[in-house]
Each structure stands twice: as structure tokens, then as C-alpha cells.
Amino acid sequence: MTTASLTDTVHLGDGLRVSPQGYGAMSLSDAYGVVDDATAYATLVHAVDRGVTFIDSANIYGSGRSERIISGLLRTRRDEVQLVSKAGIVPGSGSAGRRELRGDRAHIREQIDLSLGRLGTDRLDLYYLHRVDPEVPIEDSIGTLAELVQEGKVHHIGVSEPTGDELRRAHAVHPIAAVQSEWSVLSRDVEAHVVPTAAELGIGVVPYAPVGRKWLTGRFDPAEVGEGDVRRSFPRFAPEALAANAPLLAEHRALAEEAGLSPAQLALAWLVAKGREYGATVVPIPGSRRAAHVDDNLGAVGVELESAIVARLDALAEQVVGARTRDKRTSLHREQGVRRDARRRQIESRG
Q1: With b meaning 16 or more CB within 10 Å and e meaning fewer, what string describes 278-302?
Q2: Do residues 341 and 46 make contact, with C-beta atoms less than 8 angstroms apart?
Q3: CA 242, CA 215: separation in Å to the nearest integer?
Q4: Where is the NADP-dependent oxidoreductase domain (predicted)?
Q5: What is the Cα–Cα distance from 146 to 304, expressed in whole angstroms?
Q6: What are the mean pLDDT values of the chain's consecutive 10-residue runs (351 residues total)?
Q7: Sign of the CA dihedral 43, 49, 50, 53?
Q8: Residue 88: which region, alpha, beta or left (left: phi > 0; alpha: psi -120 to 50)?
Q9: Measuring CA to CA, how many Å separate 90 from each of 243, 249, 316?
Q10: Burial of 226 (0-12, 13-18, 19+ CB in 10 A)
Q11: Active-site residue flag, 61
């Protein structure tokens, strides 16, 4: 059953309204395999032509290449889209685990101007702190982003991959419009604290990698993961993990057929259904390098899954082999943050 269309808009938070599905513009770079600029741009234009207005990029995607490709669209269609970028990650020498996190004022103010220059615009609709810097209080990072709002360079603020406690602290400094985290049928850790906190505070949830970095589409071929492909750094894409998880993929595909959907559509519809359970607005941002895949993803807009299908999908994550990231610093930061959340709730429960 479908209940909405791409002509509708949804409210994330802080007055920001976007299309019910966005476009993850990391796919405009070579992150998931080589793509030429012309093909990448054509896919982006196709998505916007179809009604996708929520375009999510970052300064580090292709070392600015994603933003430069988007700039071509903005020359004539800036007012048609809600434009997103991020700052807070400095790439290291290749391994995701060696990247540097920076949430300091100097870095954020430097990067907003560089992003605006590459994009060829004077403002962003949403600007994320890409990761919480453990060396900088989140209040300081959000305070700098709030300055950019006052200056008109940014209209709304978001945070990517915070803990529930960090999200609450950020929101206390300035209204947060959206929280972005990896969330899918396979990766559900954000449901413990982040999604409930977002729902409580009226913050929209923007899941990235919502189709498991292509794995949940049923089109993934391990042979396509070459040098430079970001999936080489994720434990879940190691050969032994892919083999162990193959039965889960088969079950997911069988459920998609039962629901009359493609595997990608099932994964995306599941996310919106889970958001409804938590009382949170959810806007997934699948990335695609081909127009046909954009069309497939958009087939999920407005689909309402039967509760029995949702429940059967819920059981899959508990059986997944392999972590979603090898980034030990981020993982440790999240683990420590979750522990802080638990301690805070214990204190509150004692009155």
C-alpha cells in the first residue's frame, strides 16, 4: 500500500522540509567504484527531475569532487533543492581508522567557505558536524555552526553519528534539524538511544547506507569491490562475512518478493516503518550511480509494509556477521557515549 508521493514534503526538524527520500551524493565520487563526471551528473539531474530535492554531500566526498559536480546543477536549479554538506572529518593516509576528527572552530569556519566555493552558492540548507570530535566539547562545535546560521551561510544544523546524549547536548545549544547515522536492516545500533532521543526532541533522522552499501539491493557483486572502494575497509564486506551473511540476503530477497517490492524498496520502506514505530520522521538518502537505480529506490516512497513483514526483517540484524565499521576511534567514542547515556538515565530514574 502507498500513502505518499514525491510531490509531498516532510518536516525533518527546525522548520526544514525536504523530499521524502534524498540522494546520497557520495555516489558522485569513486567511493563505490569508478564513475565518470558525465554519468555522475546525469544521475544527479535525473534524481532531481524525478522529484528528489534533498541532496546530501560532504567536503570529503571525492576530496570535493561531489560538491563540484553538484555545482553544475545549482547554476540553474539552486532554489529547487535542499542542499547539504558536512565538515568534521579530515582524511588520513587511506585507512578509515586513521582519519582525523576535527570539530574546532577554525576547521569548521575554513571548511564552510571551501564547500560554498566548490558548490558555487552562498548558503547551505543543512550543514552537519560530520563526526563528534572527542577533543572538542560538542557545545563548542555546535556553537560555531550556530554562528554560521546567524551569518546566513547555513540555514539549519545537523549532527552525524552522535550518541543520544551528544544529540541532546547539541540541541540544547541550537535547534538541530537532523541527525544522520548509518541505519538499515543490517545496522540497528542507533535504535537504542539516538532514534528515541531524536523522536523526543523533534529531530528528523536521516539514515545513510540505507540499503547496506548496495548489499541489500540484491545487485551486489563482490568482484566489483576494487582498489579505492570504501567497502574494502568494512568488516562486513570481508569474504568470510559475505559468505556467512548470504542466507540473510536470500531471506531478505524472499521477503521482498512476498511484499511485491524490489529488495532495495523493501529495505527503504522498512526504515520508514521503523521511524513510525519510534515516532520519528525518517528520510533515507540512498546513493546511486545509475538513473535506473534511482528509479528503483524511489519506488519505495509511500509504501507501507505489513507489520508481519517488518517483524520478520527485524530479526535479521541479530544474525549479521561483521561490524559495520573498522573505525575504532568512532566505535569507542560511540560505546563510551552510550555508556554515558545509560548512566544519565539511571540517575534520572532515581529522581
Answers
A1: bebbbbbbbbbbebebbebbbbbbb
A2: no
A3: 9
A4: 22-317
A5: 37
A6: 72 97 90 84 97 97 95 97 97 60 97 98 98 97 98 98 97 98 93 97 97 83 73 78 86 95 96 97 94 96 95 89 63 44 43 41
A7: positive
A8: left
A9: 33, 34, 34
A10: exposed
A11: yes
- What cell numbers appear for 91 in the block? 582524511
Phi-psi region of 342 (alpha: psi -120 to 50; beta: other; left: phi over 0): alpha
Q: Which of 268, 350, 258, 346 minimizes the C-alpha distance to 309? A: 258
Task: Name residue, grid cell 570529503.
Answer: 60
Residue type, 348: E
| Total residue count of the chain as it appears in this document | 351
The kind and range of the H/E element at 342 are: helix 328-349
Sign of CA dihedral 306, 312, 317, 320: negative
Residue pair 125/156 in contact by the 8 Å Cβ criterion: yes
Could you state, in order of their start, the residue ranges of all structural domains in the chain? 10-349
CATH of the structural domain 10-349, one choice from 2.40.50.1070, 3.40.50.300, 3.75.10.10, 3.20.20.100: 3.20.20.100
User: Which of 61, 127, 128, 208 is the catalytic position?
Assistant: 61
Distance spanning both ends of the chain, measured CA to CA: 45
